[in-house]
Each structure stands twice: as structure tokens, then as C-alpha cells.
Amino acid sequence: MATPFDPNGAVRFDLRTGAASDSRGARLVLVPSAALASLGPDAITKIGLAIGRAAGERVASRLGGEGGVRSTAPELAVSHLAGELAIAGIGAIHIERWGRAMVAIVANASINDDMFVGAVLGGALSAASGREVAAAALGRDGHETRYFLGAPATADHVRVLVGKGLGHAEVLASLQGGTS
Q1: CATH of domain 11-175
Q2: How do the domains of the chain map onto residue ranges?
Q3: Helices marked H in 10-95 — which ranges?
């Protein structure tokens, strides 16, 4: 049985050799948020995907692979993903269910860019579960941003609805069979 996320050893610093690494020994580079935020859309999306995939792979390895992630209690898998993304400095993340829709709430994001955070979330969930997952921003509420998480085609539909000015509750109701 998998245990709750434990941050001990998630990031390791070897001052003698000047190296930082994750729990699996993969090298890390600490980068100021402002440097990432200054990048163009393609670069920031690629970096977000890479950060997310690496976090998702660590979660999958800890929970017994992609199948282990899919078969574990959703709360446990989410706590591991949220922990990994918090350690990476992405922000505080929790998940809500709106009927069949899954929504990530990201508070205190280190980079206030929906493409970046969406790429991180999609990459993490895809790598952890072995299924293609995309994230689409639903809107901000103070220091929190909501992201729909699901199939890429549905995420595209969500972006269209948000672009039409629908609020997150209206978009999610539409996905459940309401009007769009």
C-alpha cells in the first residue's frame, strides 16, 4: 500500500560537487521564476511540460507505475502530485470534482502564466497516469486559478467556452450536459 507524500529527500543538495537532484538522482537546476516568466509562449510551455512530466514520473515510480497511480485512491495520487509540484515551486495545488469533471485549483503560483501552469499540470497527470491529459484555465479568483483537467479535445472546448466569457461554473455545467 502506498503511503502519503513525504517531502524528505525530494530534493537533494550536494554542496561539495555543486549538484542538486531529485529523489531519483536526476539533476536539477534552480531557476528564478522571473527568468522563466520572461520566455516566449513556446519555450515556457515546453519547460512547463518537462517540469510536469518529471514530477508525474516520480509519482508513478513511487506508486507502482502508471497502473498503480490509476488504481490507488485518487486522494493519495493527488497528494503525491501536489507535493511534487509544491517542492518544484509551482504553487499549492488541490483538486475538486465537479460531477465528472476534475478541476485543479492552483494558489500562489510562482509563475502567473496559464500556459505554463497548464502545461505543468497536463504533463504531470499524463506522465503519472499514462493517459494524455490537458489543462485549460477556467479563470482566476484572487490568488487562485482554476484549471479543467481532462482529454485534450475537451480542454480545447473549455478554452472556447472561456473565450466566450463563460465563468467556470457555467463551463463545468456545460460539460455535464447543460447548455454551452
Answers
A1: 3.30.1380
A2: 11-175
A3: 33-37, 41-62, 65-71, 74-87
Sign of CA dihedral 147, 150, 156, 161: negative
Q: Which three cell numbers stand for residue 155?
A: 480542454
How far is 128 from 52, CA to CA, in rounded Å? 9
Work out the widest C-alpha separation in the chain, in whole angstroms: 60
All 3 cell numbers of residue 43? 519555450
pLDDT in tens, 117-141: 999 999 999 999 999 999 999 999 8
Amino acid present at 152: P
> Residue 60 corresponds to which cell in the numbers above?
508513478
Please tell me the distance from the alpha carbon of residue 68 to that of residue 75, in angstroms, as a whole number: 13
- Sequence-distant (≥ 6) Cβ neighbours of residue 155 within 8 angstroms: 122, 134, 135, 136, 148, 149
How confident is residue 90, by pLDDT bands cut at 50, 70 and 90?
Answer: very high
Say if residue 179's pLDDT is above 70: no
Read off the pLDDT of residues 24-66 as tens digits, 9 standing for 90 and up. 888 988 888 999 999 999 999 999 999 999 999 999 999 999 9
Inter-residue contact 34 to 110 (CB < 8 Å): no
Cβ contact 148:171 at 8 Å? yes
